[in-house]
Each structure stands twice: as structure tokens, then as C-alpha cells.
Amino acid sequence: xxxxxxxxxxxxxxxxxxxxxxxxxxxxxxxxxxxxxxxxxxxxxxxxxxxxxxxxxxxxxxxxxxxxxxxxxxxxxxxxxxxxxxxxxxxxxxxxxxxxxxxxxxxxxxxxxxxxxxxxxxxxxxxxxxxxxxxxxxxxxxxxxxxxxxxxxxxxxxxxx
Length: 161
Description:
Layout: H1 11-64, E1 68-76, E2 79-85, E3 91-98, E4 103-108, E5 114-117, E6 122-130, E7 134-143, E8 149-157
Antiparallel strand pairs: 1-2, 2-3, 3-4, 4-5, 6-7, 7-8
């Protein structure tokens, strides 16, 4: 016979407490892992957005110094090449998508030496249009390292006329 004033916990009580503690710990670990993944996705997307802005700024600066622009589909219609020319119609520079590394490269006129990629983010689409006074970046689609898409479009003026 068990005395009424016996102290301690039963095996059932201990099991219930351990199950509740395991559920709380699982919830906390899941919350932490999801928060960390969201932070990584956000940081990666912010870096890719910064790369897209850097490429756009570089293209805008070169376009403003140019008088003429030519857009060539190379190697396909989703990836084009922008050739910028001065007032004498001499090539100044070009921006082109390289299928070997999926990056947009910058080439200086003269020997057309590839000065390398402007940014380090992969480019999925690089489409442009041009007329007598404007260069339109119709689609600049970049992918972050975690797979998040960044899309950008803009219009740049040819000032050196």
C-alpha cells in the first residue's frame, strides 16, 4: 500500500513533461532554421539587386558618353549585345552576355579587350532596344545565389550628340 503523503513524480507525468518539452524545442528549432533561411534569401537577393544596379549605372554612364547605339542579338534573342559609338560612329565600348559564364561583360573599343564581367551575379536575360536618342534595357533578369530572381528595366539617353 502506498502512503498518501508520498512525494515524487510518476513515469506518466515524466513522459508527458518530456513530450511537451520536445514539442516546444522542435518549434523553436524550426523557427530558428526558417528565420535563418529567410535571412540568407534576403541577403542574397539584396546583393543581386546591388549587382543589377551597378550594371545599370555602368551602362548608363557609358551610354551618356555615346552618340550612337547598336543592339545585336548574340547568341540568341534573350541575350543581346549593346555596342556604343561616338559622334564619328567609331565604337567606344560594348556590353555583352557571355554564354560561358552567364555574366554581362564589358569590352573597351580599339582592340576590344574583354575587361571581364561587370558584376558577379548570373544573368538569365539581357534584352535591349535602341533608337536615335535612347537605349532601353527591356529586361535584365539576374538570379541570386539562392535562386531568388531580380528583374530590372530602364531607359538611358545618348547625350554625346
